[in-house]
Amino acid sequence: MKLRQLITEWVCGGCYAEPCICETVDEGVTQIFGKSGNKVVKKFRCTSGTRKGRIVAKAATCTAPMNAKKAQTMKATRRRKGKTTNIKINRTKRTNAASRKLSRLNTGRRTIKPNAKRSRKKIK
User: Fold this and answer.
1) Cα distance between residue 35 and residue 41, in whole Å
2) Which DSSP letter does residue 108 get?
3) pTM of the model
4) Using DSSP, how many helices (H) and how many strands (E) does the chain show?
5) What average pLDDT score do residues 25-44 get?
6) Nearest CA among 105, 104, 93, 112 for reference residue 42
7) E strand or H helix at 101
8) For residues 122 and 9, which has the higher predicted lDDT (pLDDT)?
9) Residue 83 in contact with residue 90, Cβ under 8 Å?
10) Rounded CA gap, 76 and 2, in Å?
11) pLDDT at 38
């Protein structure tokens, strides 16, 4: 094993513990607010990879390998229970206080592209 590999394994630069216990991933994620039960917590939205667009609790999950068995099971569950789940989710988003707070918190985090800005009509 080369010296460089040993050094990078022990110290990453972000933390000073040996061996490194730091699991921060800055690439491919943006930090947002999410819901855990009825509490508002910090979560991450994956911006690249196979989990692009998904909201996850840990940034390292975005780059983790996919579990094919779990993916197939989830697809089947969504096919069976998709419509009823959607109705329940939408009801929760409308009525739950934490969900309503989330929509306000995350609105400022959205980036609007210059060509997608809404043009306001001037009232004469």
Assistant:
1) 6
2) T
3) 0.61
4) 3, 3
5) 86
6) 105
7) helix 97-107
8) 122
9) no
10) 47
11) 86
